[in-house]
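Our preliminary data section would be incomplete without showing what the modeling component actually yields. Below, a chain of 94 amino acids is followed by its predicted structure, encoded as C-alpha cells that our downstream tools consume directly.
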Amino acid sequence: MTSARFLPVPTALLVSPLALSIGAFALLLQFPRSPVAWNMGAWTLVAASALLVLLVPLAAWSLAKNAATRTWPRILAFSGSTIYLMALAIGAIT
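Predicted structure:
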C-alpha cells in the first residue's frame, strides 16, 4: 500500500488572497459611488474567496499530515484564512 502524496501549501498562497481581499475592501471604501471600482472590487473578492476555498482544505491536510509544515507563519496564515472564510459564510447566511 502506498502512502498518500504530500502536497505542501506555501504560506504565500494563503496570505496572498487575504491581502487581495483587504485591498479590494479598501478600494470599495475609497470609491463607494464608482461602478468600475465596485466591479473590480467585487470580482477580486470573489476570486480571492474561491482561491481560499480550494487552498484551506489542502493546507489543513498538509498541516495535519506533516509535522515539518507546522510553523507559526503557516499556522497563522491558515487561521487567518479560516477566519476570513467563516466571516464570509456568516455574512452570506445573515
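The mean pLDDT is 90. The chain has three helices and no strands. Preliminary results of this kind motivate Aim 1 of the renewal.
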